[in-house]
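User: Here's a chain of 95 residues. Predict its fold as tokens.
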Amino acid sequence: MSDSTVKQQNTGAFYGQAVASFAIALSAMVGGIVYLDVSGWIRAFLGIGLLYLTTSAFTLAKVIRDKQEAGQIVSRVDQARLEKILAEHDPFQKL
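Assistant: Prediction complete.
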């Protein structure tokens, strides 16, 4: 069975850049909240908001990835069925 889909592999540099970017952005936000000149309740509210936004972003990324992988699996199953039908078909068979 031939696989017409191209598997994308991320390089180590891309992975490192993504991790570093996330770490810098998260630490900058945490630092900004800590050094903000407001009361503790407002800092706590902003901290909970930051935590919720971060977990929501991870969940969204996982849902998108899972949907994409499910589409690839369905495509592979359909392709395998088509190849099986084509392999079994004899164009010279008398009807």
